[in-house]
Amino acid sequence: MPDTLDYMITGYALGLALVALIIFSIWWRYRSLKADEAALARLEQDIRESAPVKTAQPKPEPASEKADVAEAL
Amino acid sequence: MEYTENRNFWLRVMTYVSAFLLVAATIMSFTYPGAERSMGEVQRLFYIHLGSFFGSFLTFSVAVVAGIYYLRTRDNKWDRLEASSVEIGLGLSAVTIVTGAIWARPTWGTYWTWDPRLTTIAIMWLTYAAYLFLRSAIEDPERKRRFAAVYAIIAFSSVILTIVIIRVRPDVIHPTVAGPSTTSADVRGEFNVTPRIRDTVFFNIFTYCVLSAVLTWHRIRIENKSDFIQERKLSILGNM
User: Fold this and answer.
1) Does some domain include residue A62?
2) Where are the domains of chain B?
3) Which domain covers residue A33, as residue numbers?
4) Interface of chain B against chain A, CB under 8 Å?
5) B24 phi and psi angles, rounded to 5 deg
6) What residues of A are in contact with residue B92 (Cβ under 8 Å)?
7) When comparing pLDDT for A54 and B125, which is higher?
């Protein structure tokens, strides 16, 4: 029987390394997307917090009333 | 699209199952069948080689079905499935090519020869690599999806050719373990399949098919999350 153990070890090492590379690539991309998602969530929160607080504004006078005042003056 | 807790749970379960199967299949390949008489230990590469080929065959077949469904329904979920399947299939067929080349060195005396089978699998790999490059090169999303679906359907002919070539060409040196072949066993580096070898082959094929399905599922999740983030970015920009 020929001694081909080295080839078998090399073959399995490379084959399983390629499988590991596929898994790592998927994990890395998912991790990057999770980081993007967290950054977006922070950005959304910042926008919400920095938006001006709406207070009750005085009600503008109707146009007809303004015209009456102008006529009276 | 965000994944529900239930879907995440099942994906996690399947991930653990496939990891267990991969470890079990590798240990089984090293221990269960004995070393082959004429080739020695290197014959054990046959298990990962055949398993990864069937895994890639499954994903490329799924890509064809997804391509057909996309063209019929124009639903983006089929496009995501198709792109994910092709990517995983390409990775697994790289495993097939690499392990085959290392097996060939002590058996045929060379890592690579332009044997019809090796030529067709190289064409198959390059065809699907081109799919990913061309897909990323098209800007218009609708046109990209349509083109990718048609390409995935046509590209499957390279997979069929790879399977059929060893059965129709008499000058092939690649082993034909199952089914008819036109070449003689002594030319091909044939070996006798004992029940232990057969069981290990089937277990590896099953393992790599499960692994390819789980990896494709994970890859689809990335596509879904990417789309979801893109929508959120547009929504934030719209509100600014």
Assistant:
1) no
2) 21-33+42-239
3) 21-50
4) 22, 26, 35, 37-45, 48-49, 52, 88, 91-92, 94-95, 98-99, 102-103, 105-106, 211, 215, 218-219, 221-222, 225-226, 228-229, 232-233, 236, 239-240
5) -65, -45
6) 19, 22
7) B125
B39 φ, ψ (degrees, to nearest 5): -105, -20
Write b or e for each residue in B19-57: b if 16 or more Cβ atoms lie within 10 A of its Cβ, otherwise e.
eebbeebbebbeeebeebeebbbbbbbbbbbbbbbbbbb
Residue of A nearest to B51 (CA): A15
How far, CA to CA in Å, does B86 sit from each of A14, B47, B57, B155, B158?
21, 22, 10, 10, 13
Query: Of B44, B95, B222, which has the smallest distance from its Cβ to A18's Cβ?
Result: B95
On whether residue A28 sits in a domain, the answer given is yes
B106-122 confidence digits (pLDDT tens): 988 999 999 899 999 99
The 10 Å CB-count burial string (b at 16+, else e) for B139-152 is eeeeebbbbbbebb
Q: How many domains, in total, are found in chain A?
A: 1
Alpha carbons B210 and B216: distance in angstroms, whole number: 10
In a domain, A65, yes or no: no
Helix axis angle, B45-73 to B141-168, nearest 10°: 140
Min distance B42 CA to chain A CA atoms (Å): 4
Q: Write out pLDDT tens, residues B26-84.
A: 999 999 998 888 888 999 999 999 999 999 999 999 999 999 999 999 999 999 999 99
Min CA distance, A59 vs chain B (Å)? 27
Is A37 a domain residue? Answer: yes
Q: What is the DSSP letter of B97?
A: H
The ipTM assigned to this model is 0.88
